[in-house]
Amino acid sequence: MDKERLAQWLATLGIHLEGRDHAPVYTCEQASALVGDLPGMRVKNLLLRESRRDRLILLVADERSPVDLKQLATALGCRRLSFASAELLERHLGVSPGAVTPLALVNDAERQVELVMERRVWEADALQCHPLVNTATWVLPRAALRQLLEALSRRVALVEL
After folding, report:
1. Residue 37: what pLDDT?
2. Which candidate among 15, 20, 32, 79 keeps its CA 20 to 30 Å from the CA of 8?
3. pLDDT at position 36
4. What domains, with CATH codes, occur in the chain?
5. What positions does the domain YbaK/aminoacyl-tRNA synthetase-associated occupy (predicted)?
6. Residue 52's pLDDT is what?
């Protein structure tokens, strides 16, 4: 799915997201410089991998939160976590590095990727996210996030970082 088809699919759910197009961004710092005035929590999205069990985890965390992979692995019952490759990003979420987003779960038809969110992100009024590309940022209100996950029959595990 691409950005336009995503917007159309969300519209069928009654979800219409606002945001802005911008130059490509690859880091939270770059995104903040271009869209820092948009409402919503700025987040970092990491696709993580536990190789022993071929487990994939999409972590959505406040961009200011430090992520300790050893502590996170323990909290999630994993032996060891590492960052997933660009190939796994493309294969499972249909996005490239810099465009990782919870919206990419629409591309995970086989439901191979688990969603894990920092509790404060889950409780935020809205969050900023990329619409499958790193050249735009949309504001995703809490109610729309929950509606999206329900439409995808997805659950979220909450963690404290």
Report:
1. 87
2. 32
3. 75
4. 3-159 (3.90.960.10)
5. 22-147
6. 78
Q: Long-range contacts of range 81-84, CB-CB < 8 Å, 24 or more positions apart?
A: 81/48, 81/49, 81/50, 81/57, 82/48, 82/49, 82/51, 83/46, 83/47, 83/48, 83/49, 84/47, 84/48, 84/49, 84/56
Question: Is the pTM value of this prediction over 0.85?
Answer: yes
**Integer Cα distance of 160 and 72 in angstroms:** 9
Quick one: DSSP state of residue 132? S
Whole-number pLDDT of residue 31: 87
**The dihedral sign for the CA sequence 71, 146, 39, 29:** positive
Residues of the chain with pLDDT under 50: none
Torsion angle (degrees, nearest 10) of CA 100, 133, 8, 40: 60
